[in-house]
Amino acid sequence: MDYHILAERLVDLQTSFHPVPISQELAVLDRGMFLALNYLMLHNYSAYPKELSRGMGVSSARVAALLNHLEKEGLISRRADPGDNRQVIVSLTEEGAEIIGKKRERLLDMVAQILEELGPEDAETLLRIEQKLVNRFLLQAQNGVSSGTDDRKEADSSSE
Question: How high is the pLDDT of residue 118?
Fold first, then answer.
């Protein structure tokens, strides 16, 4: 079996999935405001900015700017950590929780419908395989395997 060909097929499938409306809806939870709100919802409605930065895979400067925006919108609040006044805890407000809750519920309804159409066996198989993929990619990231983020730099330097 040629795993390189299978990898190419998987990448092509993922790329062709991008313009599908549900894929675009899911991608919203993977960026900016909704990513931060979703992260907070999944972590007991609060976190340290450093945890957000790590969990979102973005710089602390980007998180700081995002938190400023979310706070102005009334979606999060910040307060000093009672155990360490040097630390700040970011928490979802009721409005923030309501917004991300509605967004997630809408997405869950859409995905549940598609999973139902797949049937129980295929839906379970899909989730099992997706979990395996996530686990493997996370393990690679922890072991320092390149994610390919330097490809543009390599392409730029090779074209000079």
Answer: 95
Instruction: Enter the pTM of the model.
Output: 0.71
Question: Which tokens is 119 given?
Answer: 């049937």
Give dist(CA 138, CA 141) in Å, integer: 5
Contact 105, 36 (CB under 8 A): no
Residue 128 in any domain: the answer is no
* Cα–Cα nearest to 76, from 30, 25, 29, 34: 34
Residue 148 DSSP code:
S
Query: Is 57 inside any structural domain?
Result: yes
3-class SS of residue 62: helix
| Inside any domain, residue 35 | yes
CB 104 within 8 A of CB 38: yes
Domain that holds residue 48: 19-96
Backbone Cα Rg of the chain = 19
**Which mean pLDDT values do the consecutive 10-residue runs of the chain (160 residues) have?**
90 79 68 88 95 91 93 96 93 96 91 94 95 90 65 43
